[in-house]
Amino acid sequence: MTVEVILPVILCGGSGSRLWPLSRKSFPKQFLTLNLTNNKSLLQRTQIRTSKIKNIENPILICNEEHRFIAAEQMREINVVPSSIILEPFGRNTAPAIAIAALKALEIYEDPNLLILSSDHLINEEDKYIDVIEKGLEYSEDGKLVTFGIVPRSPETGYGYIKSVEKLNNDKLKGSAIECFIEKPDKIKALSFIKDTRFTWNSGIFLFKANSILREIQEFSPEIVKYSKLALNRKLFDLDFQRLEEDFFRKCPDISIDVGVMEKTKNGIVLPLDAGWSDIGSWDTIWNISQKDSNGNVIEGNVVAKNTNNSFLSSHNRLVTTIGLTDLIVVETSDAILVANKKESQEVKNIVKILKEKGIDEGEENQKIFRPWGNYETLLQENGWKLKLITVKVGERLSLQKHKYRAENWVIVSGTAKVEIDDTERILEKNQSCYIPLGAKHRLFNWGEIDLKIIEVQIGSYLGEDDIERFDDKYGRILN
Question: Tell me, which fold does domain 368-472 have in CATH?
Answer without folding.
Answer: Jelly Rolls (2.60.120)
